[in-house]
């Protein structure tokens, strides 16, 4: 299995190193072979080549089976013109790989309950919600315009979805739900939006082929409230781009710890892009302080969704949980009575538990 490793900027390099450590251990245990190749993206790529996404990076990613990315960006490149900014490289990479589905789990480890803003009785034994967000359609990509009118300006953005855009992401979420709690909540605004009504029709029709998966429907305003009131009712939340953008940030904050959360972006092909949800954290870069768990959990998602290695994915997730149980914490999730460890040691501890 060929994996392109993109360290990117800031803590990116430190955290992806730990993912490789964990994968080496998985390779030993499962007698399989991962071939790693590094590529440049973002600020590091601008410094080396003047381009946030060099052709070579695109080529390497497209000829691999999966891509693991750290993070891009940092103050050094903040004043670059738009087309030469690190984020441009990341958006272009997603487009090049055709990844239309963003899978963002909001997992709250029971050991870290005190980091959540929610009450103990709401959280129970922890949270495990998967948000499946449509990534390359809807209002962010539809026709938009600004027009001068007599008394000022007029602006509009268009939410635009067609049958196939919806079918392909709905299919992904049914597949994801089958690997989890077998329950999908389609979040929309079908009481007012025509696009939402199309989503509902298509998902309802498709549910005939996935009778083992329960499908519910919820308006987005209610979903925003229910995520805080009773988050445990959700398994997979399927939603369009803008609603997903907002709800996935809300859900991740329920878990209280940015450094812990993974994400996967997948498309029709098999090349998935796996990255933690956090940024390059320039304030702690190069100090062995970054929490590598978000990246390590993204690696578990890669094994599950790109390589169909469910047991190995579970091994990684269990190893993270065991290390938490033993009281090891990086600085961002440190609590009284626990033992603080650096990035390298956290990576080694997790690898050793596999
Ligand atoms: P950030 O996620 O980098 O950091 C926010 C805060 O969380 C910081 O205090 C940081 O130290 C802390 N933090 C983040 N990840 C952590 C980890 N793994 N372990 C411990 N602490 C962690 O967000 P920001 O400060 O808004 O952005 C910094 C740079 O990252 C910017 O250039 C931004 O554009 C970029 N960024 C990139 C991505 C990406 O590559 N996908 C995502 C978000 C932000």
TrEMBL record:
Pfam families: Iso_dh. GO terms for molecular function: 3-isopropylmalate dehydrogenase activity; magnesium ion binding; NAD binding. Binds 1 Mg(2+) or Mn(2+) ion per subunit. Coiled coil: none annotated. Mg(2+) binds at residues 221, 245, 249. It is found in: Cytoplasm. The keyword Flavoprotein does not apply. It catalyses: (2R,3S)-3-isopropylmalate + NAD(+) = 4-methyl-2-oxopentanoate + CO2 + NADH. Residues 2-350 form the Isopropylmalate dehydrogenase-like domain. InterPro entries: IsoCit/isopropylmalate_DH_CS, IsoPropMal-DH-like_dom, Isopropylmalate_DH. Its EC number is 1.1.1.85. Substrate binds at residues 94, 104, 133, 221. Pathway: Amino-acid biosynthesis; L-leucine biosynthesis; L-leucine from 3-methyl-2-oxobutanoate: step 3/4. The record marks 140, 189 as: Important for catalysis. NAD(+) binds at residues 74-87, 279-291. Keywords: Amino-acid biosynthesis, Branched-chain amino acid biosynthesis, Cytoplasm, Leucine biosynthesis, Magnesium, Manganese, Metal-binding, NAD, Oxidoreductase. Its cofactor is Mg(2+); Mn(2+). One of its GO terms (biological process) is L-leucine biosynthetic process. GO terms for cellular component: cytosol. Its main location: cytoplasm. Belongs to the isocitrate and isopropylmalate dehydrogenases family. LeuB type 1 subfamily. Catalyzes the oxidation of 3-carboxy-2-hydroxy-4-methylpentanoate (3-isopropylmalate) to 3-carboxy-4-methyl-2-oxopentanoate. The product decarboxylates to 4-methyl-2 oxopentanoate. Homodimer. This is 3-isopropylmalate dehydrogenase.
């Amino acid at each position: 299995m060929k994996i392109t490793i993109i360290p990117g900027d800031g803590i990116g390099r430190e955290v992806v190193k730990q993912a490789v450590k964990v994968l080496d251990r998985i390779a030993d245990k499962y007698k399989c072979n991962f071939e790693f190749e590094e590529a440049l993206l973002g600020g590091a790529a601008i410094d080396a080549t003047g381009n946030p996404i060099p052709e070579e990076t695109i080529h390497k990613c497209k000829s691999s089976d999966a891509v693991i990315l750290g993070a891009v960006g940092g103050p050094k490149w903040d004043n670059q013109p738009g087309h030469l900014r690190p984020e441009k490289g990341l958006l272009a990479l997603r487009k090049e790989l055709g990844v239309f589905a963003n899978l963002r789990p909001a997992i709250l480890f029971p050991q870290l309950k005190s980091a959540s803003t929610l009450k103990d009785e709401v959280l129970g034994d922890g949270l495990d919600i998967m948000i499946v967000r449509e990534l390359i359609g809807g209002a962010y990509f539809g026709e938009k315009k600004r027009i001068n009118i007599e008394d000022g300006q007029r602006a509009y953005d268009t939410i635009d979805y067609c049958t196939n855009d919806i079918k392909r992401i709905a299919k992904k979420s049914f597949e994801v739900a089958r690997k989890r709690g077998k329950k999908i909540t389609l979040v929309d605004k079908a009481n007012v939006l025509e696009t939402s009504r199309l989503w509902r029709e298509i998902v309802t029709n498709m549910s005939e082929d996935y009778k083992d998966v329960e499908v519910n429907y919820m308006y987005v305003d209610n979903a925003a409230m229910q995520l805080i009131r009773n988050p445990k009712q959700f398994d997979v939340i399927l939603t369009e781009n803008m609603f997903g953008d907002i709800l996935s940030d809300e859900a991740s904050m329920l878990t209280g710890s940015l450094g812990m959360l993974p994400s996967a972006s997948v498309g029709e092909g098999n090349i998935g892009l796996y990255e933690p949800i956090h940024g390059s954290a320039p304030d702690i870069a190069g100090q062995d302080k970054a929490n590598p768990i978000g990246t390590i959990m993204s690696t578990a998602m890669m094994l599950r969704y790109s390589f169909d290695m469910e047991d190995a994915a579970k091994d990684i997730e269990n190893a993270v949980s065991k290390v938490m149980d033993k009281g090891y914490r990086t600085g961002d999730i440190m609590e009284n009575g626990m033992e603080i460890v650096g990035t390298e040691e956290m990576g080694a501890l997790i690898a050793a538990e596999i």
